[in-house]
């Protein structure tokens, strides 16, 4: 079995929502099997939760299902989150605390990638 690879914000923007859904399901299964959590694990799980809520809108998914049932075409699952509203995730509104946490997480990810 391949080693689990956590979903990143940058990667999320390259996937369609259908592809993203597969990755989300895999990561949810990973977190549900995890019995002990380090501080780094807890931070990674919070980042995953932020990504999940930012890019997969329950309201938009329900509307897409309703459109399909009513015979209207919906391309919600075929689009990438970065395709929404000039590249911004749909429905994403961050308060000051969330913006600061996001900025910190992005800086930390860059540091980790640089090997610091």
Descriptive account of the structure:
By secondary structure, the protein is mostly helical. The chain has one domain (9-113). Helices cover 59% and strands 0% of the residues. The protein contains five helices and no strands. The model is unreliable at 86-90 (pLDDT under 50).
Number-wise, the strands total: 0
% residues in beta strands: under 5%
What is the CA-CA span between the terminal residues? 29 Å
User: What Rg is obtained from the alpha carbons, in whole angstroms?
Assistant: 16 Å
How is this structure best summarized?
With 116 residues, the chain is mainly α.
Distinctive features:
116 residues; mainly alpha; 5 helices; globular
Fold topology:
Elements: H1 9-12, H2 17-33, H3 39-55, H4 58-69, H5 96-113
Helix pairs in contact: 2-3
